[in-house]
Amino acid sequence: MAFVPLILVAVTNKYLSTAIKEWYPNGFDFNAIGLAAYTVDVAKTSAIWAVGLALIVGIIAAISFDFRRVYTGFKDGVNASIGGSLLAVMNTASEYGFGAIIAALPGFAIISHALGNTFTNPLVNGAVTTTVLAGVTGSASGGMSIALSAMADQYNAAILAMGIPPEVMHRIVAMASGGMDTLPHNGAVITLLAVTGLTHKQSYKDIFVITIIKTIAVFVAIAAFTWFGIV
After folding, report:
1. In sequence order, which residues have a C-beta less than 8 Å from that of residue 26 and are 6 or more positions away?
2. Whole-prediction pTM value?
3. Which of 58, 125, 128, 228 allows an S-S link to 5, with CB 3.0 to 4.6 Å?
4. How far apart are CA 216 and CA 82, in angstroms?
5. Coil, strand or helix: which one is 122?
6. Whose CA is closest to 165, among 173, 174, 156?
């Protein structure tokens, strides 16, 4: 029974990803619920809505299947959840702020410019640049957003010239962002260790191995696309 909520989340997310677009083909009417008009592109936000609703369905299912245990330990569970969520938010926010400060330094512009001219293949260039910037900022999303915002025009021109679909470039960059992102100062790593009660010494070897596998997979994907046109 423990897998049922997970299955429900996956199935509900898949269904709602398509259904929401069909329910609101012309956008969501905020006036109908008494709110000021606000333009929302349902096609762009439907995936977020679908995930949120699917998680709610999964939570309700998990509570329903073991209501007595949930009810008995509700207070302790809520306290632990609030403490864990605040820890994650504060760690991630502080590391993201650290990354933003690093990105504003003059030396960072030199690093990003040098990386942007290192490799001629845009997929390799994007992967290496993103993972290095993620390591410098201590944030996967930070490294990816900085790399794409700083070199978007350069990458777009390069992939168009080589006939590479933008979706492939985005997928490679997204995968590569989790490479050096898992250095010891990363917010996600700090949160993970705090929640599990482990130290860097105890667990970082395992984290490092997983990171290496994921990063190698990026270059395997690049090779597969280059040789066979698939990714």
Report:
1. none
2. 0.61
3. 58
4. 36
5. helix
6. 156
- Give the Cα-Cα-Cα angle 52, 56, 62 (nearest 5 degrees): 140
**Coil, strand or helix: which one is 27?**
coil
Q: How far apart are CA 147 and CA 74, in angstroms?
A: 43
The CA distance from 8 to 15, in Å, is 10
For residue 150, give the nearest of 119, 104, 93, 97 by alpha carbon: 104
Q: Which of 89, 51, 83 is nearest to 188 (CA)?
A: 89
DSSP 28: -
**pLDDT, tens only, 146-186:** 777 777 788 888 888 888 888 888 888 888 887 777 777 77
Structural domain boundaries of the chain? 4-72, 86-228
pLDDT digits (tens, 9 = 90+) for 22-58: 888 777 777 777 777 667 777 778 888 999 999 999 9
Angle (CA) 73-76-81 rounded to 5° is 115
188 vs 201 pLDDT, higher one: 201
Q: Which of 167, 192, 189 is nearest to 178 (CA)?
A: 189
